Amino acid sequence: MSELKDLIEHVAKSLVDAPEGVQVSEVEGEQTTVVELRVDKGDLGKVIGKHGRTAGALRTILNAASTKLKKRSVLEIIE
Q1: How far apart (Å, rounded) are the C-alpha atoms in residues 58 and 56?
Q2: Where are the beta strands (DSSP E) in the chain?
Q3: For residue 13, what are the contacts with CB-CB under 8 A and spacing of at least 6?
Q4: What pLDDT, on the 0 to 100 scale, is given for residue 43?
Q5: Which positions ≥6 away from 67 have C-beta within 8 Å?
Q6: Which conformational region is residue 49 in: left (phi greater than 0), alpha (psi within -120 to 50 degrees), or beta?
Q7: Mean pLDDT throughout 9-21?
Q8: Is 16 in a helix, a strand, or coil?
Q9: If you ran DSSP here, which 8-state letter would residue 30 be given?
Q10: Predicted local distance difference test score (pLDDT) of residue 1
Q11: Quick one: CA torsion of 10, 58, 3, 20, rounded to 10 degrees?
Q12: Are the C-beta atoms of residues 37 and 47 closer than 8 Å to each other?
């Protein structure tokens, strides 16, 4: 299992009310890895945050971790 996937899954489960509804998957591209995050409908607002601040913070954490691993990654939050 990927370190980036584990990181996003851990943070997302800490944020939501229903951690069993958190699903994280990775799609490897030629240059970029897409990390897809799915949560229960009721927890979507918690993951996105006011004005997208929480989602932005998740993307910043993912970017910092992927830079350390010399990779490029993008976070997609899927409804």
Answers
A1: 5
A2: 23-28, 33-38, 73-78
A3: 19, 22
A4: 95
A5: none
A6: left
A7: 95
A8: coil
A9: S
A10: 53
A11: 30
A12: yes
